[in-house]
Structure formats: C-alpha cells, structure tokens
C-alpha cells in the first residue's frame, strides 16, 4: 500500500534523477512528464489504482536511472536557451 | 677562479630571498570567498522562480510554500528539488518535511554551505 508520503518521496526521487540528464531536451521533457503525470492523478483515491501507478512509477525510476547514466556518457553542446552561468550539468 | 666567484655570488643570491621570506608577513589566499546569506537568498529566489506553479510576486523569506505561495504538496517537493539542484546538495526527507517556509529553506542551505 502506497502512502502519500511514499508517493511524494517517489516524486522527489524521479525529479532528482531527471535533473541528471545532460541534454537539455531530455531533461526538460523528463521533468515535464513527471510533473504532468503526477498532477493528472492528483485526486486519485482508489487504493488499487494508486498502487498500480506507484509501481509503474518505480519502474520509471529504474528506467530513468539507466537513461541518465547513458546520457552522461555523451557530451552535449549547450543550447542557446540554456543559461551559461549554471555551475553544473 | 672566475668560476669560484660565480658560485659564491649564486650562493648569496640564493640566500637573500630566504631571509626576506621570513620577514614577510604570511598572506592567506582563499579559493572562494565564504558565501553570504544574501547570496544564498538571491540564488534561492532565482531557483524558486523556475517552479511554474509558484506566485513570484508573493516570494519573500517569510512566505509559507503551501499557504502563501499557492503550492500543493507536489509543488513543494518540486521547489525543494529545484533548490537542491541550484546549491548542489541533498535535503534529507526528514528535514524537508519540516521546511515550511522559504526562510527555513534558506537557513538550512546557508548552514550547509558554511560547513563546506
């Protein structure tokens, strides 16, 4: 059974992972996707539905882990929309 | 004989700076100046502005994330992650549960930055 605390913790972990993408487009997409998916099901109350979504979130976290690792193996040019003074990424 | 003269001159030259170095007061060079609270605050505000749901006009140190800035629990997490990324640190769940206002977050970050 997934509690709201666990859901928030999953949300945090997903976002932290998403920031690890070096590529601007991947990073922004991942952040947007995570944000929108959680917001979409914000009002959900059925425990079964919450559990199944929570589990798919866990799978997505594993997927993000793999994809960000791969992403970090390549170098990306900064896009013009990205601030240059950013101290990391 | 000429070589000898050169050698003795060298020895003297080598000694002179050592004596000078002892007299000179030590100067300390810092790689980075310690961060100020104002700097933490302004960087935190900039980072918080990237959170879409946040009402920028109400952004102050006293503002409560949920009551004043119009954020829900998800947005609050998002704001804290944005701060984590800006300052390159991790806020443990235990502490992030207790952070309710922007000022509390800035205080925590300031304390953490000073430890570095």
UniProtKB/TrEMBL annotation, chain A:
CDD domains: Complex1_LYR_LYRM4 (cd20264). It comes from the Eukaryota. It holds the Pfam family Complex1_LYR. InterPro entries: Complex1_LYR_dom, Complex1_LYR_LYRM4, ISC_assembly_LYR. It comes from Scheffersomyces stipitis (strain ATCC 58785 / CBS 6054 / NBRC 10063 / NRRL Y-11545). One of its GO terms (cellular component) is L-cysteine desulfurase complex. Residues 5-62 form the Complex 1 LYR protein domain. This is Complex 1 LYR protein domain-containing protein.
UniProtKB/TrEMBL annotation, chain B:
InterPro entries: ACP, ACP-like_sf, PP-bd_ACP, Ppantetheine_attach_site. GO terms for cellular component: mitochondrial [2Fe-2S] assembly complex. Carrier of the growing fatty acid chain in fatty acid biosynthesis. Pathway: Lipid metabolism; fatty acid biosynthesis. One of its GO terms (molecular function) is acyl carrier activity. The keyword Signal does not apply. The gene is ACP1. HAMAP family: Acyl_carrier. Keywords: Electron transport, Fatty acid biosynthesis, Fatty acid metabolism, Lipid biosynthesis, Lipid metabolism, Mitochondrion, Oxidoreductase, Phosphopantetheine, Phosphoprotein, Transit peptide, Transport. This is Acyl carrier protein. Residues 38-113 form the Carrier domain. It comes from Scheffersomyces stipitis (strain ATCC 58785 / CBS 6054 / NBRC 10063 / NRRL Y-11545). Pfam families: PP-binding. It is found in: Mitochondrion. Its main location: mitochondrion. Belongs to the acyl carrier protein (ACP) family. It comes from the Eukaryota.
């Amino acid at each position: 059974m997934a509690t709201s605390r666990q859901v928030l913790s999953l949300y945090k972990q997903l976002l932290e992972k998403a920031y690890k993408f070096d590529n601007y487009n991947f990073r922004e997409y991942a952040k947007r996707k995570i944000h929108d998916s959680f917001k979409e099901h914000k009002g959900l109350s059925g425990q079964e539905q919450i559990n199944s979504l929570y589990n798919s979130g866990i799978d997505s976290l594993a997927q993000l882990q793999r994809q960000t690792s791969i992403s970090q193996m390549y170098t990306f040019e900064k896009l013009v929309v990205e601030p240059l003074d950013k101290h990391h990424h | 004989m000429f070589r000898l003269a050169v050698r003795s001159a060298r020895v003297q030259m080598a000694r002179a700076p050592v004596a000078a170095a002892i007299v000179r007061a030590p100067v300390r060079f810092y790689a980075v100046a310690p961060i100020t609270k104002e700097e933490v605050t302004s960087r935190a505000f900039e980072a918080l502005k990237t959170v879409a749901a946040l009402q920028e006009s109400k952004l102050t140190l006293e503002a409560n994330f949920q009551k004043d800035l119009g954020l829900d629990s998800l947005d609050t997490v998002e704001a804290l992650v944005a701060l984590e990324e800006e300052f390159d640190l991790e806020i443990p769940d235990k502490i992030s549960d207790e952070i309710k206002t922007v000022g509390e977050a800035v205080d925590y970050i300031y304390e953490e930055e000073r430890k570095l």
